[in-house]
Structures are given as structure tokens and as C-alpha cells.
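Table S4 entry, Protein DPCD.
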Amino acid sequence: MKRRTCLIECMETVKDPFFTGFEKRIKENVYITEHTNMIYKNTAWYKSLLNAEKSCIKDNKIKKIHYKFEDGREMVEEYNIDTQVLLRRSWKLKGKLGGEGKWQAEIGDPIPEVSANVEVADLTECKDQPILTRRNTRVNLEWRIRNLPYPIDTYSIKVDNDNKCIIVSTTNKKYYKKLEVPELQRLNLKLQQANVQSSHNFNTLIISYKKPQPLLDMEKEWFEELKKVKPIKDIPSECNTQ
């Protein structure tokens, strides 16, 4: 009896140039995608995070990580343990004449400066000035600029890869700002205009930038890496001061 030829056997024996080239292109695309998404591991930023001296404090649902880098810089990050989202990142600035330096927020609300010489007139003058804050969500980088009363069609929001920033301006020439995107600069990623979205509510301009896949991959892996840093102190929720 003549044996039937299996379709799989035919595919294996036929050396069609089309199928051979197609298979090769698929393998090349998979390699390029994986290589691109893992490229953050070769950046100076990722290596500096790995080599930094790290300590951890858990406060209820917040994990606080203190970094001391090899060059002497200090950074503190705060993560929501449930969502794994970075809530705050602050850098310690060098103090004048060897004094204690101040902390500056990169992500999260600005750290208020206490001064005994603030005039009431200065407070009145500043309260209506535009105030910029940074936010971080699971999928977006976000900027919020308060005290901008103009309608949404007044604003122009353009990426500028030459200066590695997002430029915000108004048609009435009342506001102009360059928004730095250090997360992308550290991974050597270019800005994409298609990733920018904006909205305007209650005198606040909200600008969102969709995180590229390499940044998402790094954030996911880094949160897992931070699990290796054992907390030096756990603060029970019932002991938190209000």
C-alpha cells in the first residue's frame, strides 16, 4: 500500500526560497525587537542603579529606596507597592560651603522651601504664576501645569529631539516652557510626537507621554530587582503619624 505523504513532511522537504526568506525575516524581527527592548541594560544609568548602595524602608504601602551612587550623588525613590508605580524621585543637591544640601523633586510635588523672610507681597505675586509638577503612571509620563487659563487650542506641544525636550508654547505668547524627559535621555531614546497627548481642565494643562516599550521593560525589571533590597525598618500602618 502506498503511504500518504504528510503535509508537514512536504513543508520540511520543499526548499522554497519564499518560505526560507520569510522564516529568516521573522527570526531577524524577533531578535531586533528583543535586542531593542533590552538595550537599557547597556546604559550608564542602569549600571549606576545596579552599582549604587541601596537601603529600603517600607511605610505601609509605600516602599522608599535611598541610593548612594559611586560619584557621591544621592537619590530617593518612593514606590506604591500594590501598583508598582514610582510616585516620587528626588535628588539631593550639593550644599553651599559644605553645608547640608536640599532635596529637589524630579517626579512628584515640589518640596516646599521654608524661609522666614518671605514677604506677603511675594506670595500674592507668585500664587497665580504657572506651577509645573511631574507625575508618573503605569503607562505614561505626565506633566501638570497649573494656573494656565487659556483654552486647549491655544497651546502648541512639540517634541524637539535636537534639544531632547518637549516644548510648550502658546499662540498668545503668554507661556513658553521646555520640558525635560530624563527617563528617555538616560536610555538614549528619541522622543516621538505620536506619543504626546494633552488636555486642559480647571486651569491646568495636562501633558502625557506614552512610555516606550524599553522604558516599560526596565521599570518592570527594576521593581523586581528592588525586591532584593531588604527593608531596614517596617513601619506598621497603625503607627503612622498623620
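The longest strand covers residues 53-59.
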